[in-house]
Specification:
Length: 415
């Protein structure tokens, strides 16, 4: 299997001959291959399980699935129009399976999932966010409304406020009025591809903050977010009555408005954090090997994959690696949240980690020679200062030097 797999979706898996063969005729080699892809994050474990379950279902026309297995299939594929889909699956069970028919059915189902995804994307913040990641990078902060209307802001810092009426202000200027939201939502209902979406479907906006930029975001319930460079947040135009849910890729610090009747949930690719009202930091960049949650006040419940929820108390840091390994430790929380105040504090931190943080914060390219990876540093940097002044300050703390070539800063040992 020398094919390169990167961020495979359910559609991709169901159209992949290697995957189908691995499910129907598994070998130790094939099992090891797919476990490796899941651990590396190239394929989501949940998507792999859904696709595998479907393949096994349509390949067993003479064997009836148990009721529990059927329910699990409907729940995992998350298709709202369950009645129509069940009819389609029951029809597949009655068809004589052959190699040609299997391929036909898989292609047909892939097309069905594609259109299902297209019409549901306003309901799913993860789908919205992943679609946005495919777009060309921008150096501007972008606000993407639920109907994919985009607004760009050149400022280095923005203050975005989203009230309970769905109105949006950026740096005290109203950019979206309630009547505009209402008009656009009505237009959406008239589109053929969204005919079956329920009228009470949640509409999501996105705030996309590139490297070198930062933003604050006030949500409709009064919750405030500080959004670090290189981060994406998907959030509802207005929250529902029984759940407040946002999706994050990157790093945010949150002060959650308390509402015991309506839990606040932060979802990332790897973890889910559930709170009633508290302040905490979430760091979950897609490219990072490790994601973490640091609790400042109150309490949170953290869940990863199939694990049970883990309750944190103030001053605890929960970390989760790509292979599923988790760790909980007591920390000085300000070391992890001072970025929102324009500071970077570190204790016995690798120089490579510090340089990556500076690269993202200022939006510049920084490289370093291999020998610097293991160099440990302790100190504090004022990120509100000019970038080169910060870099010069770093060279006074540790025996390193840097040179600028074109738009790249290269660090090396200062012998």
């Amino acid at each position: 299997m020398d094919k390169k797999y990167t961020h495979y979706t359910i559609d991709d898996l169901l159209s992949d001959d290697n995957f189908i063969s691995s499910v129907l005729h598994p070998t130790p080699e094939s099992e090891e291959f797919w476990i490796y892809l899941i651990q590396k994050g190239y394929v989501l474990a949940d998507d792999f399980e859904k696709a595998s379950l479907f393949i096994r279902a349509i390949q067993s026309p003479k064997e009836k699935l148990f009721r529990k297995e059927k329910d699990l299939l409907w729940e995992k594929i998350e298709i709202e129009n369950k009645k129509n889909l069940k009819k389609k699956i029951r029809y597949l069970y009655m068809v004589s399976i052959s190699a040609v028919v299997c391929i036909f059915l898989l292609l047909g189902f892939s097309t069905f999932l594609y259109w299902e995804y297209q019409s549901k994307e306003n309901l799913d913040p993860m789908a919205l966010l992943k679609k946005q990641l495919d777009m060309q990078e921008s150096t501007d902060i972008r606000l993407v409304l639920s109907k994919n209307k985009q607004m760009s802001f050149e400022e280095s810092n923005t203050d975005v406020k989203n009230n309970e009426k769905g109105e949006v202000k950026v740096n005290s200027r109203t950019v979206v009025k309630k009547e505009e939201q209402d008009t656009d939502i009505n237009k959406e209902k008239n589109k053929k591809e969204t005919e079956y979406i329920e009228s009470n479907a949640v509409k999501y906006n996105q705030l996309i903050v590139p490297r070198g930029k930062h933003s604050t975001l006030l949500l409709s319930d009064g919750t405030k977010l500080w959004i670090n460079a290189g981060s994406h947040v998907a959030f509802p135009v207005t929250f529902g009555k029984d759940k407040r849910e946002i999706y994050v890729d990157g790093e945010v610090y949150l002060e959650v408005s308390r509402n015991e009747a309506c839990p606040f949930i932060v979802k990332t690719d790897r973890i889910q954090v559930k709170v009633l009202g508290t302040s905490f930091n979430v760091k979950s960049y897609e490219a990072d090997e490790e994601n973490d949650v640091v609790l400042v006040t109150g309490s949170v419940q953290v869940k990863t994959g199939a694990r049970q929820e883990i309750a944190l108390t103030p001053n605890q840091r929960f970390s989760c690696k790509a292979d599923g390994a988790v760790n909980i430790e007591m920390v000085d929380v300000y070391d992890y949240i001072c970025w929102k105040d324009g500071l970077l504090r570190y204790k016995s931190e690798s120089l490579s980690t510090i340089l990556r943080r500076l690269s993202d914060y200022y939006g510049i390219e920084i490289r370093w020679e291999a020998g610097l990876d293991d160099l440990k540093c302790s100190g504090k940097l004022d990120l509100k200062e000019d970038m080169e002044k910060v870099l010069n300050g770093l060279t006074k703390m540790i025996p390193v030097k840097y040179r600028k070539r074109d738009e790249c800063y290269f660090f090396s040992m200062n012998h």
